[in-house]
Amino acid sequence: MPQNSIAACSDGIKKAQQALERKGLSRQKLAKYKDCNLSRSTIDNFFNGKAVSNESFVNICEVLELDFDEIAGISQASKQVTEQSAPQKESLTETIN
User: Fold this and answer.
1) Cα 58 from Cα 13, distance rounded (Å)
2) pLDDT-based confidence at 77, cuts 50/70/90?
3) CA atoms within 13 A on the CB side of 80
């Protein structure tokens, strides 16, 4: 079952905080940013390592120009395993049908 929310890892929070400072934004300004439009509590949850909706997570990362997989702590190896297992699932489905 797909996950509906995601949290930033500790390294991701540090990178996001650096990006926030690099862009000259505060958390409050980020919440009101034209392309973000999220509540301050959602922004605070993100920077406190609490889960936020996938859409909010991606939105924050896009405004801060960050790779959301990196901020979430999804390693390259994990992504490769997922990509390699996907075709196997499809072939299993084809076999059943």
Assistant:
1) 14
2) very low
3) 3
CB 55 within 8 A of CB 42: no
Total length of the chain: 97
Q: Pairing between strand 52-53 and 5-6?
A: antiparallel
d(CA 55, CA 4): 9
Neighbouring C-beta atoms of residue 69, cutoff 10 Å: 14
Signed CA dihedral, 56, 59, 64, 68: sign only: positive
Angstrom distance (rounded) from CA 67 to CA 89: 27
Please provide the average confidence, as pLDDT, over all residues in the chain. 82
Nearest alpha-carbon partner for 65 in 39, 33, 28 = 33
